[in-house]
Specification:
The structure is a homodimer. By secondary structure, chain A is of the alpha/beta class. In chain A, 51% of the residues lie in helices and 12% in strands. In chain A, helix 2 runs parallel beside helix 11 and helix 3 crosses helix 11.
């Protein structure tokens, strides 16, 4: 990262070349618009059938005419396949989640174009310029942006980023015009003032952003906006070209595939399954009584949590969750049972549905199975291709890192039982009226895959057991012991978060 | 409404009988729980296939143990078919929309049970008790609740409402216990204090709520919560019984069917289609320039708007919308094109997807076709049964009333062209490259149904042309004239809303 040292002080070099004196005549503009319109509509329909989502990030200098560019887009494309998301003020629901929550939440479905006005860059640049973030933090955030874009691109999303550029002189001219027109709307004039005063710094930061995040996965395009007609045509052309490139399947191919050569530490094999609960009833009561006020205090202090339950079939996830709900009642918590994805979920990155479940400040989401399905059932049943699930370890760590940064308390439980205990529970279930529905042919089929699951579990522990999001493996042959352990961990972690 | 006069002063009568000395032994409790568990799970699976949603509103006195009741539910039912929504604090996104927005947004899908904690009653009662609302306003709100419930029930939603009741003496006891336990969570103790101080008034208001909204569509059940075990069993029993009743198809059948005897005033026939634009270019430019700052001012002042575009195929809705976007750009507005409903939408009341599109304060949603589809295409193509679309006029007026109450600016445009003009435009479209996709066999088929559409339009104008949400019929044989008229109306209405 040394290469950007003192970049701000030295000022911008690269962006200078985009301040030209280009002019487009009205005739030329109308001719090009007509051509583009036909081509865009046609390409858009092909893109719809292609079923991949496209994200266009539009950011740049104030007064460059970004609004007009987007409106030009609405003029010539089918608005049913177009979604515009503007990111300026965060709502309180957004502010209580990690920064990328709002961007995940606006993700277009396959076949659609999502225009991300300001995208994830504008606020980051502003914070850096205002001195709220140091240069190192700024560069870290650029790194996050790059990772985020790469992840989406490898999953099939077409991403293009456009920076709308004008010269300082031109900005001044437009700024004065705007001030006259909108003197009754302080939000606009204040914003324009800020932009004008910081022109040099903004451009230098944009150049840093460009250099750190201009990748084959998500390239930047700089649009010279000196002339409004030219910039609109250029903008449309960029979209058309990106769609066409994607349709020709010149998409970046990414991800390595796993090798079978590595074995991972046998976490499960070294777990002592003989542990039993001593004094269940009293301990249970005490733990529930202890957790109750802690959960409410977490609510008051705005500390949210996400608890993940993974484990063998019949390991007792449901039972643990129910005991937990006695303490953290359903007004504060939400149980999210992960089943097969819906059509809406399938048409987006697989993490999309989990990002949507990040709780608001003070609330708890309890996951009965989770995003780890990607490297477990999806891996083993072949629902995800090897290059897909293999890159997920990084994506998952990244997701959990975003949660930790926002202060979310994350605990990942793995309930471990022996193969014999599992069989005994399956057979027992068939005799209990309200459990019969829980036992199907599939459960027995899954048992045959036990060795594959052991490999997947061990790899998962090894690769995703991070400082901020550790795995808690719980011996669960004795159900009562497991329940107490879960509650103890929740209790301890809440106390730590609340610094009691 | 006379019957409730002075109810508050006279105090409660009916609810007294629910303060009993009932006690349930632990053995009895466990026996009943076991029976209910089996039956509930089985019934839940049948209900899943029945594909209707169920809403259970749980409200009542503080300290009655509502939390425990809901948690008991999570204990014995399949949590994948259960959704708990708690309504206490409004988020800012909710506060900027009509009151019912959050309830629409939490609507369970068909086959699921949605538990609405506090539902739409609790806040209304609190506001009345606190003197923020007069008795008349309170009764109006009850009327709204009744209408809302009836609408959902007639559409197939199973609704039950439960009031958790305890005596004043019992509340005091529980209140003291709570205060000791949660002295570190002010939100809880303050709430409990409020409830305890206002006991008599709350119960009297609840009785009014009961009497005004206890209908065959959405009955109330009062749960005696003196004994915790008994109340949990009673609560589960209510749910089981309601599901069973629904499965036996003892659902309220509602809605009358239309009669063909009435003819409505011929609004379209009396529209002068010969109007043309005089000075298009200049007027357009002027209107766009005028609207721009008005739209930003509306944004600043938090005034949101919803513009509906209905009209004949090829009447020029898209063109009008595009001109409008020049003035109110895509950062403030959103075009919502209404196509056939998705699976997710079909499994809920048809107004669900429109409620979700109510804009935040300051923003504009532009509907290219709208909720009027129910009484137009759905009526004519038979997608909605006669008793369904026929009751929609009331439901639509009601929806628009909620919008008006929240201060949303609502304009409904109808673009009218002659049948000859329509044919000419269809033929022309086939020659324009970017319009070819817009013309299909279906358009010609729809033309054959012109007389039926005229009837449907005239009935729609007659029944939904309300003071707060009037129809603006625009002669659109001359496209330019229509576009100017749309912009003029928007301009005028914005000025009125902004009181310039």
């Amino acid at each position: 990262m040394i290469i950007f040292k003192n970049k701000t002080a030295r000022g911008y070099i690269m962006f200078k070349q985009f301040q030209t004196d280009i002019k487009m005549s009205k005739d030329e503009y109308e001719k090009r618009l007509l051509e583009l319109r036909t081509e865009l509509i046609r390409t858009q329909y092909k893109f719809k059938d292609y079923k991949r989502p496209m994200i266009l990030v539009l950011t740049g200098l104030d007064g460059a005419g970004k609004g007009d560019m987007v409106n030009a887009l609405a003029d010539v494309m089918d608005s049913r396949l177009l979604e515009v998301a503007t990111f300026w003020q965060e709502t309180d629901e957004e502010a209580e989640r990690p920064y990328y929550f709002r961007f995940w939440n606006s993700m277009p479905m396959g076949g659609k174009l999502g225009v991300y006005f300001n995208g994830w860059y504008e606020r980051t640049i502003r914070k850096y310029i205002d001195g709220d973030d140091t240069e190192n933090i700024f560069l870290d955030k650029m790194k996050n942006a790059e990772k985020f874009e790469k992840m989406l691109a490898l999953d099939g999303t077409v991403i293009v980023k456009a920076w709308a550029h004008i010269s300082k002189k031109e900005q001044k001219k437009r700024h004065e015009k705007l001030a006259n027109k909108f003197d009754n709307v302080p939000e606009i004039t204040e914003r324009a003032n800020w932009y004008y005063a910081k022109y040099d710094k903004i451009v230098a930061s944009a150049e840093m952003a460009y250099k750190t995040t201009h990748t084959e996965f998500a390239p930047w395009e700089i649009i010279d906006c000196s002339d409004k007609r030219y910039s609109q045509i250029r903008f449309l052309q960029i979209i058309l070209d990106s769609m066409k490139k994607a349709l020709e399947d010149k998409m970046p191919k990414g991800g390595t595939t796993p090798t079978d050569l590595i074995t991972f530490p046998d976490v499960l094999g070294s777990t002592d399954l003989n542990k039993t609960a001593e004094n269940y009833k009293d301990e249970l009561k005490e733990l529930v009584t202890d957790i109750k006020p802690l959960a409410w205090e977490a609510y008051e202090k705005g500390i949210s949590s996400m608890l993940v339950f993974e484990g063998w079939d019949a390991a007792g996830k449901g039972g643990c969750i129910r005991r937990l709900l006695r303490a953290v009642d359903l007004r504060l918590s939400k149980v999210i049972s992960i089943a097969a994805p819906t059509q809406e979920e399938l048409s987006r990155h697989y993490l999309w549905r989990f990002w949507r479940q990040v709780p608001r400040a003070g609330y708890m989401s309890i996951f009965d199975r989770s995003w780890y399905g990607r490297v477990l059932v999806e891996r083993i049943e072949g629902y995800a291709k090897p290059e897909e699930w293999f890159r997920s370890y990084d994506e998952i760590n990244d997701f959990e890192e975003h949660l930790a940064e926002r202060g979310v308390m994350l605990i990942k439980f793995f309930l471990h039982i022996s193969s014999e205990e599992q069989l005994a529970r399956f057979e027992q279930r068939e005799d209990i009226p309200w459990k019969q529905h829980k036992i199907t042919e599939e459960d027995y089929r899954n048992r045959d895959r036990t060795p594959e699951y052991i490999d997947a579990y061990n790899e998962m522990f090894f690769k995703t057991n991070t400082k901020n999001a550790p795995w808690v493996v719980i011996p669960a042959n004795d159900k009562k012991y497991a329940r107490l352990e879960v509650l103890k961990t929740v209790n301890k972690t809440l106390e730590k978060m609340l610094k009691i």
